[in-house]
Amino acid sequence: MKDNELIMIYGTEYKEMAKQLLEAANLAERIPSKDARIGLKPNLVSPSEASWGATTHPQVVAGAIEYLQAHGFHNLVILEGSWVGDRTGEAFEVCGYSRLVQEYGVPFIDTQKDGWHTKDCAGMELEICDCVKQLDVLINLPVLKGHCQTKITCALKNMKGLIPNREKRHFHGMGLHKPIAHLNAGIHQDFILVDNICGDLDFEDGGNPVVMNRLIAAVDPVLCDAYVCRMLHYEPQEVPYIHMAEELGVGSADLSRLEIRALNEPEQQTELPRERKIVELQDAVEEVESCSACYGYLIPALDRLKQEGLLEKLDTRIAIGQGYRKKTGRLGIGSCTSCFTHSLKGCPPTEEQMYEFLKQYLS
Ligand code: SF4
Fold first, then answer.
1. Residue 146 in contact with ligand 1 by CB distance below 6 A
2. Ligand 1 and 350: CB distance under 6 A
3. How many CA atoms lie less than 13 Å away from 59 in the CB half-sphere?
4. Which of 67, 226, 295, 331 is deepest in the core (most CB within 10 A)?
C-alpha cells in the first residue's frame, strides 16, 4: 500500500477481515526479514471487553498474528500497559488476551512492569520502555475513539502505552499534546491496523460504543489521525498533537493527498452525531494537568449525575489535576486536591467513588 493511502474493510468476521486487509496492504513486504522481532501494540487501557468500546478486539490481533505466522514470521510479541490506575494484568485477562497468548504461542510484555530508558525524542527527553528497543518492526493496533482531553485518540496517542507510568503522569504535567508528538518522533510505528469496530466516541475507557464494524489499514499515523478528526467532525487543528507531530517529521496531515481504498461496502452507513456529550459535561470541570484515568472516570460519573438531574445543582466547578497540588479551593477530585474544602482522596479514585462523593456533595 502507498503511504498516503487508507485501506478499509467492513463486516463482522473481525479475524478474517484483519487477514484480508493485511493481504491487501501487503504488510509482509514491509518487514525486512523472517527473523524480525515484530511488536504488536493493541489498546488495553482498562479491563473492559472490546464490545464496551475501549479496547482492541482480540480477534483483530488474532487475525494479524495468523497473517504474520502464515507468512513465516515467528518472532512476535504483544506489548501494552494500561493507564495509570488500572493493572495491565487484569485487562490482559478480561480482554481475552491470555487466550491469544496460549493459542498462538506469542508472548505478552506488560510495559507497566518493564524497565525503561531515556531517549532524545526530537529534542525532548522521554522515558521509554525497554521492550521497544528490542523491536525491528512495530505494528500499532489502536482503537478509534473519542477522548475527553484530546478529543480523539487513535494511532499517535496509542504509543503512550509504551512508556512507564511515571512518564504517563509527567505527560499530563506537560500538557499531553507536545509530549505525544515528540514520543512519536522517538518511536517509529511501521504499520497501523485500526480497530474501528465499536469505539466509544466520547470516552477513552468506553461505555457508549458506536458500532462501525470497520477495520482500517494505514502507514502514516499523522494522516490516519487527521482522517479520524474529519470523521468525528473536528478540524485537525483542534487536536494540536497532530500538527506538532507533522512538524517533527512523523508524517503528513495533508488530507488532500489522502487516497481511500475500500475492499467492500458497509451493510449500512452510520451517521456520526456532530454534538459530543463530552462538551457539555466539560463545562462542569476545571482541569489542570489531570491524568487520563482521573479525568476519564470523572466524565462518565458526571454523565450519570446529569441523567439523574443532579448536576444542575452544582454551585462550583470541579477541580481535577496535578496543577492543584498544594492549592486550596472548594471542590476537588483526587489526591492532588487534598487541600480543598471538599476533596475526594485517591490517585485516581474510581468512577464509582467519584459518583458517590459528588452525589453526596450535591444533595
Ligand atoms: S489524583 Fe492527581 S496524580 Fe493521581 S491520577 Fe488524579 S490527577 Fe493524576
1. no
2. no
3. 17
4. 226
Q: Which helix (H) or strand (E) holds 142?
A: none
In short, whether 319's Cβ falls inside 6 Å of ligand 1 is no
Q: What residues contact 263, with CB distance under 8 A and at least 6 apart?
A: 7, 8, 9, 20, 21, 24
Q: What does the chain come to in residues?
A: 363
For 12-55, how does the pLDDT look when each residue is reduced to its tens digit (9 = 90+)? 999 999 999 999 999 999 999 999 999 999 999 999 999 999 99
187 lines ligand 1 (CB under 6 A): no
Superfamily holding 5-262: LarA, N-terminal domain (3.40.50.11440)
**Distance from Cα 132 to the centre of ligand 1, integer Å:** 26
Residue having the nearest C-alpha atom to atom 4 of ligand 1? 347
The span from the CA of 12 to the CA of 300, in Å, is 28
Atom of ligand 1 nearest to the CA of 334: 1
Q: Give the distance (Å) from ligand 1 centre to CA of residue 77.
A: 31
Question: What's the per-residue H, E or C state across 205-236?
Answer: CCCCECCCCEEEEECCHHHHHHHHHHHCCCCH
Global confidence as pTM:
0.86
Domain boundaries, the chain: 5-262, 277-362
